[in-house]
Predict the structure.
Amino acid sequence: MTRRQSPNNKTIEIREFHSASGGIFFMARRRILSAKTPFQKIEVYETESFGRVLLLDGLVQTTERDEFFYHEMLVHPAMMAHPDPQEILIIGGGDGGALREVFRYPVRKATLVEIDAAVIDAAKKHFPSLACSFRDRRAEILIADGSRFIKESGRRFDLIFVDSSDPVGPSAVLHREAFYERLKRCLKPGGAIAAQAGSPLFHLAHLQKKAIFLKKQFKYAHSYFGPAPTYPGGFWCYSFLSDRVNPLKKIPRQAPAGLRYYNRDIHAAAFALPAFLVQRADG
């Protein structure tokens, strides 16, 4: 990411490159937060177009204006497909958005494992519409390495959500075959996993490689898609994984009230592969 002060010194231009020659830019009124942790650099900017924007190591993680696309599509397909999700695990998700969506359902408990406590602190202070979920009595917040947690905890869950960063850099371990082998052992019988997988435009080779080993590990291993305006390419891929829960079956109940994107029609459409991905991203 690059940033520069405008000539009038009233705005900051933020550029995130998605390739060598293109990307996304924001004009920010001010920088609200800049902090370096043992894990990453955290920044929050106030922008006119997207409200507050959270960046980790210079990459956009969430914005006030468009976060609902990502968080609803990560969480609701699995929550709706599972017959009775009660014990939930979220790996990552320190902004609180995935946890917020989980708590739209009458779950018993949701455990969120975030490696960097400073991300949670930033969300509580600067993104209250996301971080409201941290106050829910059903929430268990653990500051720990998600990969180590699933390897050592011995606990089992109905649903697991992997709300990680992109499949490059420090989060690459959360996209590997060994990680999903361990993740599967953390599922209760009849459980399912939903994970963000990356950009079909910029991470296509990775998606193709990942689909091969996921289909060997799970009876139902499906890619599904949704818009993500401020993520690379504006179009995002997720993985749905289970040995018993088929997400392609008709959803018998209505989605929770108050959603802005997801509904049962979107659910069905999301699992329909675009033509250019039929032979590449999902088989």
In short: The mean pLDDT is 91. The first helix runs from residue 67 to 81. The first strand starts at residue 2 and ends at 5.
